[in-house]
Structures are given as C-alpha cells and as structure tokens.
Design brief:
Blueprint lengths: L1 H30 L4 H16 L1 E6 L8 E5 L5 H7 L5 E5 L8 H7 L3 E3 L4 H16 L3 E5 L19 H8 L5 E14 L2 E2 L16 H11 L2 E7 L3 E4 L4 H21 L10
Parallel strand pairs: 1-8, 2-5, 2-6, 3-4, 3-5
Antiparallel strand pairs: 6-7, 6-8, 6-9
C-alpha cells in the first residue's frame, strides 16, 4: 500500500510540475528570454526528486568546443542524471521520439534522434550533429548503441563517432574534443549495490517503460555517480576505431572505480 501511494504521489508531482514547466520551456525556445537548458535542468531535477535519486559528480564538463560527450548507457534515467546539472543536448534512438512524456521532454531539449539501423539516413544525422556541435552545443553520445545492465560497459561503436569526423570534413571545425563520461548507479537506500541489484536500475532492450518506471518509483533512494574524464582532441586523420576503444577504456575504468568505492549517500558533489 505504501509503495502504491508513493507511486501515485510521485506521478502527480511530475504531472503538476510539467504543466508549469513545459509552457515556460516552449516560451524559452521561441523567445530566448533565458537559456534553453535552464528550465530543463529544473525539470530533470524534479524527475530525479520523484524517483528519489541523488546525483554525485566527480570532475566537470569540459569547456572545450566543439564537444562530443561519449558516455555509457544504463537507463532512460541517464538523461535526467546528466541533464540535471550540465548544459548538454542529447543524441537518442529514433523510437524515443514517440514515447509519452520522455519523447516530449526530448523534443523540448532539441534532441537529435538517430536511426542506427538505416544507413541511408546516417549521413544526414551525423551532419546534423556536426552542425549542432559547431554552434557550440555539447552533444551527449551514448556510445554503446544500447543499454547495459549497470555492471559492465559494452563495446563502443566506432560508427557513432562519425559526427566528429563529419564536423571536420565539412569544415565546421579543425578539431573536435571528445570527453569520456561514466554513469554508475551505486547505492540503494544508502547501501552499496552488488551485481545482483544493479540491473534493477537498468532499462534494457525492449523492456516496457512503465513497469520499469513503477519499480524505480516504488523503491526510491538510489544514488547515481557521474565521473568526467579529460577530453581528447579528435582531428583530421584521427582514427575512429582507436578513439572509440580509448573512450571505452576510459569510461570502463571510471565506472568500475565508482562501483568499487561508491560515494556516501549524503555527499552531493566533489
């Protein structure tokens, strides 16, 4: 009964806040009265509050531009975790565009939707991402191309780094900076998660969204960590496969460090 009440109150909180924030975000996008990410940060933090998630940060988003952020991917909540404190835009799979609530939020954040299986459209999508980076947007790429179970980092797909190559080949930039970022879900109700419990936070494959959302809302009190690595320059002649392997290794190292020694629940930022 308590869990059902928590789910109801959390969803009610999300709906009420969204009714206020969505019109403000639309106004921001049309008028430029304030940075577009200002309202979105509030929205993301509100979602995290409803879920009972605490975010701990090590390092910072690079100031170098153009910037492509190469991160691992565990759940749809990764977007809220990152978007709650940094000014970034996301690259997401195409089917997310039609999702209730999350699809709307993604559009309000000017997310670039990509169809990874359709090679005919990949060039246009990479070109759009390259243009956005050239304009100064820090674009987040979930480089595994899928979601992991929260315990391991999957191999990074080198083809997804095509936007960096295109930004250079089209003359939009002499070089692009690629920054590795690791996301890890580390604690549940203040206790370190083990391999058995971490998949609870993961949203894998074709898993339905609503059951996963209800599980997170019912549990609450989850700690997430975000670790930023040093950006690496990607210039003309740089090898995409080597860069993908380097980013994968750095993200894996940071993620395993977070899982092995999770921050205390009450510690917010370091």
């Amino acid at each position: 009964m308590i869990k059902k009440l928590r789910i109801f109150l959390a969803l009610f909180y999300v709906v009420v806040c969204s009714l206020v924030l969505v019109p403000l975000q639309i106004l921001s996008m049309k008028t430029g009265l304030w940075p577009e990410t200002f309202i979105l940060k509030i929205w993301h933090r509100m979602i995290l509050q409803a879920l009972g998630m605490r975010v701990h940060v090590k390092g910072a988003l690079a100031k170098d531009r153009p910037l492509l952020v190469a991160a691992n991917h565990i759940s749809w909540t990764d977007i809220m975790v990152l978007g709650s404190f940094v000014d970034v835009k996301f690259i997401a799979r195409a089917d997310m565009e039609g999702w209730p609530l999350i699809g709307m939020l993604s559009k309000l954040q000017r997310t670039v939707f990509i169809e990874r299986e359709r090679k005919r459209t990949s060039g246009d999508q990479a070109s759009e991402i390259a243009k956005r980076m050239a304009k100064g947007d820090a674009m987040v790429l979930f480089a595994e191309g899928s979601t992991g179970d929260g315990n391991l980092v999957l191999p990074f797909k080198s083809t997804l780094f095509g936007a960096a190559s295109m930004a250079i080949s089209e003359g939009a930039a002499d070089q692009v900076f690629i920054q590795p970022v690791a996301i890890a879900y580390t604690r549940l109700h203040g206790m370190p998660m083990g391999r058995r419990h971490r998949p609870m936070t993961a949203w894998i494959g074709d898993q339905d969204l609503m059951p996963h959302l209800k599980t997170l809302l019912a549990e609450g009190a989850i700690d997430a960590e975000v670790h930023f690595g040093a950006p690496v320059p990607f210039a003309k002649g740089s090898n995409r496969k080597e860069t993908a392997r380097l980013m994968e290794a750095k993200v894996r190292e940071m993620m395993q460090a977070a899982l092995a020694d999770p921050r205390p629940s009450r510690q917010r930022v370091a």
